[in-house]
Amino acid sequence: VIAELIESLTRVFVDSVSNSFYPVPQEAIGMGSAFEGWSPRDWDGVYRVLVPLNPPPGHAFHLELNSAGQVADRTFNVCVELVCTWEKEQVEEKPLCFLHHSRKELRRKQKRSLLETLCTSSYLDVEKTSHWFCHLVRSSWLQVPQWHSWYVVFQPCSRSCRLELAKAGEPDVEMLFGVRRGDSDIFVSSQPTKATITASTAWAETYAVAEAKFFRHIARQLPCESLHLKCLQLFTCILRGTGFSSSTWKTVVMHVLTTVPLSRWHRRAFARRLWDIMAYLDRCLQLTHLRHFVLGNERLPAEISLPPAMRGVVPPNLFEHLARDPAAHREARQAYGRLRFR
After folding, report:
1. Which domain, by its residues, includes 129?
2. GO CC annotation: what is one (predicted)?
3. pTM summary value
């Protein structure tokens, strides 16, 4: 139901911006556990979708690395550049071009470039984009076929557009927006990372779309397409409180899916697969090393597209904090012992 609603909204968005020079929304992509088919017990009840933004005519997006921190926690600036629209058009009447038309003519036609509307300096501003996007949703809502079935409350957010669907039992919807890195499944998005993002021009790199694509790829090949999700739900819900986050369990399960032959993931082997996941976590704790699943993973399915430079990087160690802190490592080992007992 949520996916159909967002699909209808996106179609309306494209019509709304067709004669403007604002970013062009593309088909929304479901992100996170709700769309992957599992949810931890502490799920916040929010369906999150990523709406990719393409540059409008006469503009181009270029990503510039903004942070020098951890590879898995990078931010980028989205540089907006004006490009000539005359070169691509072979018609007698030239279209509007921000590089060739005079300012006077542009003002007369009441046309402003993206640089003048949603940018700070020459960079796409997350907060300005969020404000514009929320206004677009509000003004477009009555054009959505399903509008009469929902009562919507628009919640103010500085880096996303959040809708509270006032219908019994329905969760909220948070629409994030992002820019694709080339032709890959990696995006920079408006969702902040764990580290506090202060600059409104900073966009966080996200691997959520690649991970969701991996889960769909796996489900098509397993004898029991949901067995891996049942394993993940058991560790994140039933065994909650054993000291490991849902993101850690998700990473471990994804690694096990690429090491244990997929033909072995059938219902009768449920207990065996649980122990495989436990054994993998045990080895990672002994070595204080858990590899990032997307970055530098040579076992990633070929259908998941990464920027060329990303496949060759050394996978970040998600357990690096355990290697640096012996007390935290001991606590994690004790948590594993309690988990094994349970």
Report:
1. 1-206
2. membrane
3. 0.86
